[in-house]
Amino acid sequence: xxxxxxxxxxxxxxxxxxxxxxxxxxxxxxxxxxxxxxxxxxxxxxxxxxxxxxxxxxxxxxxxxxxxxxxxxxxxxxxxxxxxxxxxxxxxxxxxxxxxxxxxxxxxxxxxxxxxxxxxxxxxxxxxxxxxxxxxxxxxxxxxxxxxxxxxxxxxxxxxxxxxxxxxxxxxxxxxxxxxxxxxxxxxxxxxxxxxxxxxx
Length: 201
Ligand code: CU
Ligand code: ZN
Known about the structure:
This protein is mainly beta. The protein has 2 domains: about 45 residues, no CATH class; about 150 residues, Sandwich (Immunoglobulin-like). The chain contains 2 helices and 8 strands. It has an 8-stranded antiparallel β-sheet with strand order 5-4-7-8-1-2-3-6, covered by helices on one side. Zinc ion (ZN) binds next to loops. The site of zinc ion (ZN) has 7 residues, from loops.
């Protein structure tokens, strides 16, 4: 499975504790079951809470992939591994407020997740929607990967992204147009669900 390979490669440099915990994650395969931590891998740097969104294409598209969210001390590390995008394009990438991908065009996911009532902006802006993750840049084969730690995302409280939706758009987010960056139609959607939710002690 391609996404797990990239996830493993990206995490490789982050140390043995992370790899030990990732082994627990990978052993869960594609099921949604919550896995127990390996007591031998216990460490203050182990990612204890992990969530993911498995993206499905909206009607008329075939974009798919996985976005993984790993809790760290400074925020949530986001890994995206997406395929079947346009070739060499930019695609708006957001967390939307409703964990509902049932509409054929993805509009059931609602607007950008914005619990703090801020304007739409780019991911590095001082004020932005919590869900403003920027753009994915696709390669000449239509694949896109991204890895970045985001300080705005949370697994707790009003900013929690659990149960919200990840949306990818046909066009680029301009980081300015309100309320959503003029990124065009929604081409993929997936609900953010727990993979591993062992809260820090
Ligand atoms: Cu969006
Ligand atoms: Zn926004």
